[in-house]
DNA sequence: ACGGATTCCTGATGGC
DNA sequence: TGCCATCAGGAATCCG
């Protein structure tokens, strides 16, 4: 599933292929893939230039430019489970059509020639959970800054101090004085608390920090939270260096798989032996997700 | 108000 | 071999 390292890898591999190109064509093969509706989406992106590609949390962001270099709004792609964004060079041959449809695209953007031939940007997604959102420039209704999911995203884990990490896990507005019973894994998966962590990297970070996924976050010591923060940074950094984790569907913009799945120590290892102590790894459901941990190495 | 459960989707997988 | 139930999960939404 595309989490922070996967989306970062897609952004990096996509940037070199599409930056500075104009969007000349918008083909929507599945209208449920886009927000807003077809006419509005087309009006927001057609003729715009892709100025820059980057990422915020698990969102892939295409920053657009209008005529005269003015802000042209943003395309935000959320890949959810099985989404892919691919850059495919145009060959100007009739075979192009077959090559594109083999990827089962939901949306195809036809991009301008930059001197080395044209390019297609494909959004494909077998499970159809993902979305491609188009936003108007500036702030105000219809701009990305007013999209609640984007506006309320928590901080980037790789641009955060240990102290700020502890602060964002602390329950906000505890006016009643009641202690939160939220599980640590539920908080890590909550994009409004911290952005970009999904099931894979939550399990991997908790394993490396020696903390059970069902531990109550409010009961963890400062020392253990600092250890968790270090584990999150370490696992995300390593995963980016390995171009992400490809379990089944994930590919970068060139269609290449990542390699961090070969370094999993917790995710998907239920019933197998712990690589640290040899105990049998357990799986349980926490925050609605399968969560795998070592009952010996990880504690509440 | 908080936190858990459900829903949306389709392909892979396992049991019989 | 074929069929059917089960599972995977991010985030919106529903519910106790």
Topology as a string of helices (H) and strands (E): HEEHEEEEHEEEHHHHHEE
Task: Give the mean pLDDT.
Answer: 92
Query: Structural class per helix/strand content?
Result: alpha+beta
Overall 3D geometry?
A: globular
Helix tally equals 8
In the CATH hierarchy, the third-tier topology of the largest domain is known as N-terminal domain of MutM-like DNA repair proteins
- E-strand count: 11
The CATH class of the largest domain turns out to be: Alpha Beta
Amino-to-carboxy terminus distance: 27 Å
Low-confidence region ranges: none
CATH homologous superfamily of the largest domain - what is it?
MutM-like, N-terminal
The CATH architecture name of the largest domain reads: Alpha-Beta Barrel
Largest sheet: 5 strands, mixed
The percent range for strand residues is 15-25%
């Amino acid at each position: 599933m595309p989490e922070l390292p996967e989306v970062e890898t897609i952004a990096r591999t996509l940037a070199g292929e599409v930056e500075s190109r104009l969007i000349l064509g918008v083909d929507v093969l599945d209208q449920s893939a886009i927000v807003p509706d077809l006419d509005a989406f087309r009006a927001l992106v057609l003729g715009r230039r892709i100025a820059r590609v980057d990422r915020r949390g698990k969102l892939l962001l295409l920053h657009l430019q209008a005529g005269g270099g003015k802000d042209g709004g943003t395309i935000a792609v959320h890949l959810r489970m099985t989404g892919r964004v691919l850059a495919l060079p145009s060959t100007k041959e009739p075979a192009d059509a077959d090559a594109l449809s083999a990827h089962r695209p939901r949306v195809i953007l036809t991009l301008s020639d930059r001197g080395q031939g044209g390019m297609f940007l494909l959004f494909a997604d077998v499970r159809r959970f993902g979305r491609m959102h188009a936003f108007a420039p500036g702030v105000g209704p219809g701009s990305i800054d007013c999209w609640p999911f984007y506006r309320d995203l928590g901080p980037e884990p790789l641009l955060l101090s240990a102290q700020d990490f502890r602060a964002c896990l602390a329950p906000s507005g505890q006016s009643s004085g009641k202690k939160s019973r939220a599980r640590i894994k539920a908080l890590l998966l909550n994009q409004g608390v911290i952005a970009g962590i999904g099931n894979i990297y939550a399990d991997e970070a908790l394993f490396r920090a020696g903390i059970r996924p069902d531990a109550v976050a409010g009961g963890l010591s400062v020392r253990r939270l600092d250890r968790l923060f270090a584990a999150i940074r370490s696992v995300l950094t390593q995963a980016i260096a390995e171009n992400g984790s490809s379990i089944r569907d994930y590919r970068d913009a060139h269609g290449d798989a990542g390699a961090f799945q070969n370094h999993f120590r917790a995710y998907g290892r239920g019933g197998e032996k712990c690589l640290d102590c040899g105990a049998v790894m357990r799986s349980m459901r926490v925050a609605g997700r399968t969560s795998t941990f070592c009952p010996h190495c990880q504690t509440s």
